[in-house]
Amino acid sequence: MRIRMASMPLLSLRSFERYSRYVEEILLDVYEEIISAKEPILKESLLMLERNSYRYHLEEFLKIVINFLYFKDEKYLKAYINWRYRLYKSRDIHKKFLYKENALLEKIASHYIKDALNIEITKLHDYIAMLYDEAQDENSEYLAHKIPEYTLSLYTLLLQGEVDALESEIIKNTPTLQSFCQYFTKNISGVLFYIGEQWTLGGISVAQEHRMSALLKEILLKTLKNYEPISMKKEKFALSTIQSETHTLGREITVQILEKLGYEVVVLGSELSLKDICNTLYEFRIHHILFIATLPTNLLNVAQYIQVTHKEPLLENVQYYAAGGALKTLTNPCESLECDLFFESFEDLYEKFA
Predict the structure, then answer these.
(1) Domain holding 211: CATH number?
(2) Displacement of CA 3 from its chain's centroid (Å)
(3) C-alpha distance across the termini of the chain, in Å
(4) List of residues 6+ apart from 29 with CB closer than 8 A
(5) Partner of 347 at 20 to 30 A CA spacing, among 29, 64, 99, 104?
(6) What is the residue range of 138's domain?
(7) 229 within some domain
(8) Does the predicted TM-score (pTM) go above 0.85?
(9) Is there a single domain that holds both residue 121 and residue 217?
(10) pLDDT of 22-67, one tens digit each?
């Protein structure tokens, strides 16, 4: 059963199916109208966003809408609207641009979905407009929130490229695998989030974001090599990221942790088809499979992967798990994704499988 909030429009399965069917057409039409518009507010906003960048953001937004039509989870859409508002606000893009875009999405989606579902589409976009109104107040509070001093100190070491000092600090605080998982949950996750926020708000460039992420990844994977593995367990794990996932740090660290805990781990490529995943699970006699999603746009894929593999009679004893930063956008990940467990942190993962 899907989560439904009182303030949220009740949208049917047909809305999800229709929107999914016509998403490419809607994307192209909205994009064409936006870039050819004569209104100063649109032209000025496009100059700040750049056309290619705007097309990417519009495409991601439509993926979010489709995910929302499936999950019907207020928290999910609200989290993305807040992120999008902060991104545009940091580039001095007026909220009128978001309202205009929303109106175009409603008009063009209604053109492709011509029946009683138009009422649902109108309700959906009225709801989105309401969330943009709320975002202004909520993000004022968010931007006033102070980052912990220790998080800032680690971030500064990364930004300045002080690799030796950062590595020494991490090793000092992580003498065991368990302490590594705890330290990552308490401190490193905050640094990664802050790096992403600084990029979103224009505080660092794309090049700086990539460099900092790469340095931190190198140090963390090097640290994990310091721990001796314990005796092998009989159970086998499969790990999979979803297509279009660009961040692999979570998967690589998860593999290292599980192997140190004595599990045999099979890593499934993100390009594998559902049929190939099912065949791999059966061939290797997998007991547990963990799907990792850092991007909220990929949660629908996780749900569909789990649904399909659940239907395979030869895989009825497999346990299904989900992990990754994207899960924070769902009210109840187990219900939404139909998984057995979800993990918000490496500390949770360690406690479950140590």
Answers:
(1) 1.10.1240.10
(2) 19
(3) 32
(4) 108, 111
(5) 64
(6) 13-144
(7) no
(8) yes
(9) no
(10) 999 999 999 999 999 888 888 888 888 888 889 999 999 999 999 9
